[in-house]
Structure formats: structure tokens, C-alpha cells
Design brief:
By secondary structure, the protein is of the alpha/beta class. It folds into two domains: 3-86 and 134-217, P-loop containing nucleotide triphosphate hydrolases (Rossmann fold, 3-Layer(aba) Sandwich), CATH 3.40.50; 225-285, Alpha-Beta Plaits (2-Layer Sandwich), CATH 3.30.70. Helix content is 36%, strand content 28%. The protein contains eleven helices and 14 strands. It has helices at residues 41-48, 70-75, 92-102, 107-120, 136-147, 166-181, 193-196, 217-223, 235-242, 264-273, 288-299; strands at residues 3-12, 15-25, 30-34, 56-61, 64-65, 77-80, 154-157, 185-190, 202-207, 210-216, 227-232, 247-251, 254-258, 278-284. The strands form three sheets. The protein has a six-stranded mixed beta sheet with strand order 6-7-8-3-9-10, sandwiched between helices. Strands 2-1-4-5 form a four-stranded antiparallel beta sheet. Strand 4 and strand 5 form a beta hairpin. Helix 3 (92-102) crosses helix 4 (107-120). Bound molecules: adenosine-5'-triphosphate (ATP). Residues 12, 15, 17, 35, 37-43, 82, 191 line the site of adenosine-5'-triphosphate. Adenosine-5'-triphosphate is lined by residues 12, 15, 17, 35, 37-43, 82, 191. This is ABC transporter related protein.
Length: 301
């Protein structure tokens, strides 16, 4: 329902791993948490689920403080850690049934649920494999299955797509859509922006422990659209026409139209029809990753 990270700071020795981090994930919202390796994602996640105390600030899960009402708050949040540890001789399905017992789910029902979830996550052939023998990616998928058992109203997934095959990614996307409809709040971290496209509604960007921007996915896609660089005989006059098609900047003899909202040929046709002499046209793709790196360059340091 609601995850609120409120002015959280954390030091490791002299390193300020988190510097006054604040953001919210609301009802039915799926937020990506994107930053380079070492940006502070896992530290934020560990503080938000209550396994690491912040030096200052707090996290509220449905209004409950994770530092002051840890038990109640953590019951309301499901978590898949970056590197789940399951050093046990239990077989996977048996362990799932054992964990489901904590939530009062009877063994028969738990076995059915477990088989279904693990099969969906591509672990159908490894239901009776000992967890200690699972690879890191398999442990991650197992942790995802386990986080779903008690159906909490909020979720935090740390680099969950990493370790999922294409079928697992589809499973995760469908799950996110279902959660959205149910009004759950979901935060999932990734160091690759294009990985969160198609799943996240908004993206919280973190760099060197600081939040450097929060954008909706449609704002990002808008800004990541291609740019058109045009050399035209009457630069200043062309601006009023080109403004309809994106953000316009003049650079000497060139006009740059970024965030292009139509095809390059439609733009050129209008210029030519209006009597301009178009001398040169170049289109530059701006990928999601470029958007991310530009954001870091502009706001990061
Ligand atoms: N327990 C710790 N002791 C000392 N330094 C730590 C500890 N945990 C994290 N750090 C440091 O804090 C910074 C943030 O790390 P964090 O793991 O939160 O980043 P991340 O964004 O999750 O990166 P990754 O994608 O690589 O997991 C890094 O510089 C990291 O080395």
C-alpha cells in the first residue's frame, strides 16, 4: 500500500552510503530503483525491510516505522534480497512447505501452492533438489516464491530480474501487474534502466547515495526519444515550425529537435513545403541508458 523512505542516511565508516534519501511508493504503484553498482540500492532495501538500522531518518511501511515498530512493519512487506542465502539440506519444496507453516498454511495446501509457484519460476525440475545445491539464480527464484507466501501489501525486490530467464521475467511482469491491480506498492531495484521499462510506472534514480531524480516511465520515454539535427537556410525562422515536434535548440547553423514526437520525414516535408532549403538532416537515437547516464552527468556530481 505505501512505502515511505524518509530522509534516510547511512555511513559505513567514513563512506556516506546514503545521503538523506527520500521517496515514496504508493498504492498500486510499481517503482524501479535504478543506480549503478555501489549507488546504494541494496543499503536502502536492507534499511527499508528492517535488517539494517539507518543512522538517521526512517522508513514507514503503511505508516508503521521500521525502526520503532519493526515486527508489525516488516510483516507488511515481502522482500527478495540481492543474494539470498539458503544453506540448508532441506529439499526446495519441503522447505517452502516448512516456511508456509509459519503463516498457518496447512502442508497439503502449501505443497500445491509451492509446486505451482516454483514451476512458474522455472524450478519445476528442481522441486526435490537440496537448496544448498541451488545456484545463486535458483536461490533468487526460490526467494521470490517464498516472498509471495503471506501475500503482503508491499514488496521490495532487490535485483530480482537478474537471475530470471525470459519465462521468469514474464512471470515477474505478470505478477507486478497483478499487484498493481491489488493496490500493492512494489519497489524493485536494477542497475539497468531498460530492464525496468515495461514493468515500472516510475523510476527513482540513485547515484552515490543521493536521489538524483524521480520520473514517470512516460516522462523518461519522452525524453529518451530520438533527436533530429537539421541544417536549414533560415535557422531562426524554422524554429516556430519545429517547436510543434519537440524541444528546439539552435546551434549555429543547425537546429536540434529533441524528444521528437513524429517521424523525421514528416518534419522535413513540412519545412520543404514551407519553402525552407533543408541542407542536412541527421537523426540521433537516445537510448534509455543514455538518458540514465546524462542524468548522472547533469545531476550526479
Ligand atoms: N556492510 C558494508 N560495509 C561497508 N561498506 C558497505 C557495506 N554495504 C555496502 N557498502 C558500501 O556502500 C555503498 C553502497 O552499496 P550498495 O550495496 O547499497 O549499492 P548497490 O547500489 O546495491 O550496488 P550493487 O548493484 O552493486 O549491489 C558501496 O560503496 C558499498 O561498497
Amino acid at each position: 500500500m505505501l512505502i515511505e523512505v524518509n530522509s534516510v542516511s547511512k555511513f559505513f565508516g567514513r563512506l556516506k552510503a546514503l545521503d538523506n534519501v527520500s521517496f515514496k511508493v504508493g498504492n498500486g504503484e510499481i517503482a524501479g530503483y535504478v543506480g549503478l553498482n555501489g549507488a546504494g540500492k541494496t543499503t536502502t532495501v536492507r534499511i527499508a525491510v528492517g535488517v539494517l538500522p539507518p543512522d538517521s531518518g526512517d522508513v514507514f511501511i503503511d505508516g508503521l516505522s521500521i525502526t520503532r515498530e519493526k515486527k508489525k512493519a516488516s510483516e507488511r512487506i515481502g522482500w527478495v534480497p540481492e543474494l539470498p542465502i539458503f544453506e540448508t539440506d532441506f529439499k526446495a519444496l519441503d522447505y517452502y512447505v516448512y516456511l508456509a507453516g509459519y503463516y498457518g498454511i496447512p502442508p497439503g495446501e502449501a505443497r500445491r501452492m509451492g509446486r505451482e509457484a516454483l514451476e512458474m519460476l522455472g524450478l519445476g525440475d528442481a522441486l526435490n533438489t537440496k537448496l544448498a545445491a541451488y545456484s545463486q539464480g535458483m536461490k533468487k527464484r526460490f526467494a521470490l516464491a517464498v516472498s509471495l507466501i503471506n501475500d503482503p501489501p508491499n514488496f521490495i525486490f532487490d535485483e530480482v530480474l537478474n537471475g530470471l530467464d525470459p519465462k521468469g521475467i514474464v512471470f515477474f511482469r505478470d505478477l507486478a501487474i497483478k499487484f498493481k491491480k491489488q493496490g500493492k506498492a512494489v519497489l524493485f531495484s536494477s542497475h539497468i534502466l531498460s530492464e525496468v521499462e515495461g514493468i515500472a510506472d516510475k523510476v527513482v534514480f540513485i547515484h552515490r547515495g543521493k536521489i538524483i531524480g524521480v520520473y514517470t516511465m512516460s516522462e523518461i520515454l519522452n525524453m529518451a526519444r530520438p533527436s533530429l539535427i537539421i541544417k536549414v537556410d533560415r535557422v531562426e525562422e524554422s524554429v516556430s515550425i519545429l517547436e510543434k515536434y519537440g524541444r528546439v535548440e539552435t546551434k549555429g547553423e543547425h537546429v536540434v529537435v529533441s524528444g521528437l514526437n513524429t517521424s523525421p520525414s514528416a518534419v522535413i516535408k513540412e519545412l520543404v513545403d514551407s519553402g525552407f532549403n533543408v541542407l542536412e538532416v541527421r537523426s540521433e537515437e537516445r537510448s534509455l541508458e543514455e538518458f540514465f547516464f546524462n542524468l548522472i552527468k547533469d545531476k550526479g556530481d
